[in-house]
């Protein structure tokens, strides 16, 4: 029977009021109730009297010495007294107002009592008599409840649901998978989660519950993916192959093998009716932009518009300049849309986008405003996509008629996130850097040794290097931060001007001024650029080879890696100097990790462990689902196994096999309809 169809009110003792109360926990039916698992367990071990501490809650095991006596006292109150022999000592057990417990004490039988120990009186005020099977110890389940319902009430409801319906719990995970991983069936699991007999049983139940939760989640993802495949809603972009090949040939460099591979993956998706939802991941400097440009060009040759959204104005402007230059000989019209444009400018550009006068549109999140309409959007590229919230990404996807989506990120996606937050996306990886790049050498110094950094910069400048100097957001107040950047700017001017040209860049500057400074730096008219983190992502000036980061302990690992990635983009040997006085172990650890590896993947994994998923993604809307039993970081291995099994079931019509019948019908209801298989 499908227990999801049996309302909790079917249990005796659940009237309208209690039903309401239990619904406030999100429990509607017997299935919900049986799968409402404890959020933690209190593990109680049988105590020896020698170890018992006054007023502590303990579990004692003994032999009932005499029949219990129930005495009334006060108004409607009563007390049950019984003596038990524990380790050759007679202990008085007292229960208040639970006269029915007297049946549990039979002279000569073994019994276990949980309660509060009174050291002086050598007595225990009982809270609970533990049944036989628990005599070795007891694990107490603790549920999360609210003001509408007590622990005790919930537990007794779960108990009666289990007594009445446990034989009808159907196991959803197919048998062959349970066998393969030595997992419990659903009935055993429900028992082991709520009323474990011992640690081993509870352990296995938990492992099973985690697998089950992850597996069902992954089935949802597989279903979503197959929906994209089945509904032939994606655009067929019949791009001009020769045109694209010629364009690639005209580039000043050859694509790396990895770039060529991912480009083909993307073009294949665009050409098919499959709705592309692809994540392009490649470490900083691996050359993602050119891949995006080729894809956009392909979209344009098939008669559509293509848009690229960047998280900062500086980056949008850079894309506009660079892409514009690449496309100029091709007579493709490109425009830029940002928040700092005047209404007049904005309206004129928006009009060109709407009428299809521009083919390629570069912008910031200004692109997702309601006032922006596309004529025929075929492809959306989201650059540095981890900097956008889930909703912003969705809004852009909803522009136009189901355009293909290419999301790009330099922050390598830790395994956990790849499976969960990005599980519905296909992933392309650029796993090599363009030829000739040298490893960035990273040094960490304490601020008292700052002179060393000045000396180093002097030497590098003499060798015609360009230098970034980055200062963090130190306070909440942008004014103070600015002052900090200005002080450092003054210091560098004092030391190096007028021999070298020093520039200053920060978020408060008007847009045209920012553009001007960036353009001077990229044309080597500025030697040292003192900047706030506005240059953190995307900025590409290949000649820059030194990155100095002040107060580096204030940045997260991923952020430092991004900043460091502004250098090492050309053939010059590049350096990164971290100035930091770490105040604790983790901060110290971060400095050590950074100086020891350039591998963005390793750094992202470490970062995830240290800070949690939301932070690494730079947004609270990390898209990481809210798992109840499993922890996607700690239980990554179970998660990966669940993904593999879910994928296998969705492949090759395996779902149609009879062994997967129960799962199929369960999922069918869960997702309204399962796309592939009916
Ligand atoms: P990211 O992946 O960090 O966005 P970019 O796309 O900004 O990297 O590329 C970094 C730099 O490498 C740019 O200056 C770009 O022109 C250059 N580049 C990209 N592909 C190649 C290549 N195959 N060979 C040489 N240089 C390349
Ligand atoms: Mg980039």
TrEMBL record:
Superkingdom field: Bacteria
Enzyme class: isomerase
SMART domains reported in the protein's UniProt record: DEXDc (SM00487), HELICc (SM00490)
Domain Helicase C-terminal, first and last residues per copy: 449-609
EC code: 5.6.2.4
Pfam family, one: Helicase_C
PROSITE patterns: HELICASE_ATP_BIND_1, HELICASE_CTER
Molecular function in Gene Ontology: DNA helicase activity; hydrolase activity
CDD domains attached to this UniProt entry: DEXHc_RecG, RecG_wedge_OBF, SF2_C_RecG
Keywords: ATP-binding, DNA damage, DNA recombination, DNA repair, DNA-binding, Helicase, Hydrolase, Isomerase, Nucleotide-binding
Function: Plays a critical role in recombination and DNA repair. Helps process Holliday junction intermediates to mature products by catalyzing branch migration. Has replication fork regression activity, unwinds stalled or blocked replication forks to make a HJ that can be resolved. Has a DNA unwinding activity characteristic of a DNA helicase with 3'-5' polarity.
NCBIfam families xrefs: PRK10917.1-3, PRK10917.2-2, recG
Name of the featured protein: ATP-dependent DNA helicase RecG
Organism: Companilactobacillus keshanensis
Lineage, broadest ranks: Bacteria, Bacillati, Bacillota, Bacilli, Lactobacillales
């Amino acid at each position: 029977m499908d227990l999801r169809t049996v309302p909790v009110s079917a249990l005796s003792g659940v009237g309208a009021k209690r039903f309401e109360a239990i619904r406030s926990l999100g429990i509607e039916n017997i299935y919900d109730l049986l799968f409402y698992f404890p959020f933690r367990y209190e593990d109680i071990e049988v105590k020896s009297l020698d170890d018992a501490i006054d007023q502590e809650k303990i579990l004692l095991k003994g032999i009932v010495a005499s029949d219990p006596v129930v005495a009334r006292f006060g108004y409607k109150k009563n007390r049950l007294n019984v003596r038990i022999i524990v380790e050759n000592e007679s202990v008085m057990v007292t229960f208040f107002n639970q006269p029915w417990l007297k049946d549990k004490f039979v002279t000569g039988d073994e019994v276990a009592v949980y309660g509060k120990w009174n050291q002086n009186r050598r007595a225990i005020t009982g809270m609970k008599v533990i049944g036989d099977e628990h005599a070795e110890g007891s694990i107490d389940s603790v549920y999360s409840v609210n003001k509408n319902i007590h622990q005790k009430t919930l537990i007794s409801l779960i108990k009666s649901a289990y007594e009445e319906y446990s034989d009808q719990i159907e196991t959803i995970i197919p048998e062959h998978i349970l066998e393969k991983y030595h997992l419990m069936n659903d009935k055993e699991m429900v028992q082991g989660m709520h009323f474990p007999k011992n640690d081993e049983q509870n352990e296995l139940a938990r492992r099973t519950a985690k697998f089950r939760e992850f597996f069902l989640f992954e089935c949802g993802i597989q279903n979503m993916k197959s929906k994209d495949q089945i509904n032939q809603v994606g655009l067929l972009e019949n791009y001009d192959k020769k045109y694209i090949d010629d364009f690639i040939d005209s580039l000043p460099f050859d694509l790396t093998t990895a770039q060529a591979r991912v480009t083909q993956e993307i073009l294949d998706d665009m050409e098919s009716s499959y709705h592309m939802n692809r994540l392009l991941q490649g470490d900083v400097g691996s050359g993602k932009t050119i891949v995006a440009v080729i894809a956009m060009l392909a979209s344009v040759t098939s008669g559509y518009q293509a848009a690229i959204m960047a998280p900062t104005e500086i980056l949008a402007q850079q894309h506009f300049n660079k892409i514009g230059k690449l496309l100029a000989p091709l007579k493709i019209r490109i425009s830029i849309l940002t928040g700092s444009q005047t209404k007049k400018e904005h309206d004129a550009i928006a009009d060109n986008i709407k009428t299809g006068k521009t083919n390629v549109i570069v912008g910031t999140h200004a692109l997702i405003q309601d006032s922006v309409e596309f004529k025929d959007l075929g492809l959306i590229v989201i650059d540095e996509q981890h900097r956008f919230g889930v909703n912003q990404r969705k809004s852009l996807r909803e522009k136009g008629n189901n355009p293909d989506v290419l999301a790009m990120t330099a922050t390598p996606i830790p395994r956990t996130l790849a499976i969960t937050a990005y599980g519905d996306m296909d992933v392309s990886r650029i796993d090599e850097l363009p030829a000739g790049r040298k490893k960035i050498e990273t040094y960490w110094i304490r601020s008292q040794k700052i002179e060393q950094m000045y000396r180093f910069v002097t030497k590098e400048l003499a060798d015609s290097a360009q230098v970034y100097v980055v200062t963090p957001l130190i306070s909440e107040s942008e004014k103070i931060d600015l002052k900090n950047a200005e002080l450092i700017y003054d210091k560098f001017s004092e030391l190096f001007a007028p021999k070298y040209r020093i520039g200053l860049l920060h978020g408060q500057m008007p847009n045209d001024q920012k553009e001007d400074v960036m353009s001077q730096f990229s044309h080597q008219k500025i030697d040292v650029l003192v900047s706030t983190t506005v240059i953190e992502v995307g900025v590409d000036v290949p000649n820059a080879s030194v990155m100095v980061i002040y107060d580096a302990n204030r940045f997260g690992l991923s952020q430092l890696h991004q900043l460091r990635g502004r250098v090492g983009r050309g053939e010059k040997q590049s350096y990164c100097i971290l100035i930091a006085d770490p105040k604790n172990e983790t901060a110290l650890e971060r400095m050590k990790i950074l100086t020891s590896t350039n591998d963005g993947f390793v750094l992202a994994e470490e970062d995830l462990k240290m800070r949690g998923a939301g932070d690494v993604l730079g947004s609270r809307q990390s898209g990481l689902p809210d798992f109840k039993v499993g922890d996607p970081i700690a239980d990554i291995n179970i998660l990966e196994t669940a993904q593999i099994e879910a994928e296998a079931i969705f492949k090759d019509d395996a779902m149609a096999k009879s062994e997967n019948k129960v799962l199929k019908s369960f999922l069918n209801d869960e997702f309204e309809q399962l796309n592939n298989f009916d």
